[in-house]
Amino acid sequence: MTQTRSATAVSPSDSIPPHVWRIAGVVVFGALMSMLDTSLVNIGLPTIGADLHASLATVQWVASGYLLALAVSLPLCGRLARRFGPARVWVAAVAAFTIASCLCALAPGIGWLIFLRVLQGLAAGVVVPAGQTILGQAAGPRYLGRVMAVVGIAVVSAPAFGPTVGGLMLDHLSWPWLFLINLPFGVVACVLGLRVLPRQPGTRGGAVDLVGLVLAGGGASAVVYGLGELGVRDANSVLSVWLPIVLGALGLAGFVFRSLRRSEPLLDVRMFRDPVFAAANSASFFAGAAMFGLMVLLPLYFQILHHESLIRSGLLLLVYGGGGIIALPLGGRLTDRAGGGIIAVCGTVVVAATVAPLAFLPVDANPVLVQVLLFVCGVGTALSTMPLVSTAYAAVRHDQMPDAAAFVNILQRIGGATGVALIAVILSRMAESGRPALSGYHLAFAGICVLSLVAALASGVLLRVRRS
């Protein structure tokens, strides 16, 4: 796995072949569709509940079931990509996601909608890692930074534009259109995927390790579920919070132990023996926790603390997404030139430096100042996430890319759930204590700042490992 250490020796003037850009465009198109769907549907939950006569606790499973299913399918993605080829898996997953979207729009009741959202989540869990596998294999270590920066457009723009798009749709259309909007995009993505993506032959392998799949998929989903419940229930709740987290952690530990003893594991955990791959994923875990936590906190900051409407809150968040989109190409080029470690250190420090003032500003703070901070924070977020992903992929062989993509996305998903849970716990506990709402948001922003600093330290470890 040492052939990828030469990323710093690549000339930044090397132009990326046109076919790689075409592949990147198709992959980003599919990723943007699946990620935008999450923010659109979450906005429509109150409307869906009212129309289908479901309680808030029940309708929340439309979102929770999707996220849990997504965590279940991630461990299987590597196996499917190796067996059938990542391009075939990507097209099949996009097609399944599109069909499930259509069925969700036609759901006659809340029970059917939850069930169909689970199927949609199973497909969505495969789209992003399969696409990253295709891109990683097509680009190779030489162009990974710049190409993976394109994938970051979906990660940054979907949460930024989703609230605005969803609010406008609900103002003029019924909630099924939140799902029907996926149909034309899904059809176009499948056609482009069949025409553009390289169809590499799969490799014959043994039977799927069903026990490993249960341990990995069930463990990851249990941890994500427990962390999600931590933010909405009593932290001392054993059955709802700590039992799923403990059982999930034991399941993941059992999966690691089982994989080390098998000649053909579901996912090759031995890749973590590579110090660069291990360090990049560790840093990505904390950077993902800060990013996803911030993406949950910022809409609440405008809607609840500043009493902004859903659409106006979305408009105020556009500057955050815009900063990320502008910085992504630069971050990719710098990653190819200097390596992801130093770029991630700078990015995470920028996030911490721009979030820290929000932990002290009053409610009536200058709105221009807040927008400037959010723009720079978006720049830092772009520089703190995708360079770590690029570095992790550059540390593995071509044939290991499917497993690497699965691991990167699993750790980011659990890291994101950790960051969201931290924000939810802080806000709910501060509200229960009777403290002013502003105090809760100040503490929440401080929590994001701490996560970013931990990510900076982990990125520093990555920098030292690569240099050694």
UniProtKB/TrEMBL annotation:
Instruction: List the GO cellular component terms.
Output: plasma membrane
Extract the PROSITE patterns matched here: MFS (PS50850)
TM ranges: 20-45, 57-77, 89-108, 114-131, 143-162, 174-194, 206-227, 239-257, 278-304, 310-330, 342-362, 368-389, 410-431, 443-463
What Pfam families does its record include? Answer: MFS_1 (PF07690)
Mostly located where?
Answer: membrane
Entry membrane topology: Multi-pass membrane protein
Q: What is this protein called?
A: Putative multidrug resistance protein EmrY
Q: Which organism is it from?
A: Nocardia aurantia
State the organism's lineage.
Bacteria, Bacillati, Actinomycetota, Actinomycetes, Mycobacteriales
